[in-house]
Amino acid sequence: MNTFEAKTTISAPAQTVFDYVSDFTKHGEWAGHGLQVTKDSDGPVAIGSTYSTVAKQFGTQRERSTVTELEQGKVFGWDSKGTLGPCTIGSRWLLRTAGRP
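Structure (tokenized):
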């Protein structure tokens, strides 16, 4: 499996950052490629919540994303399947307060 890791520091309270990145419908605000995200499942975000996404990169890409990890204030992860074929693309956000492991 190939992996990519990036780190950044954000000058904001960790809970504010977590609330933003774990609201998957807001990913189009910063992800680029004209990403549109629609929540398919009812209720609050939880492991198993599903979303439909449409992006415009190398043509139109339609994906179905499922939340796979959720630890309030710390971890938000999901897998996406769709246009890219039989592969699964996974993303994971791990938030830490600066200066803490």
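The chain has a mean pLDDT of 84. The beta strands are 36-39, 50-56, 60-71, 75-82, 85-94.
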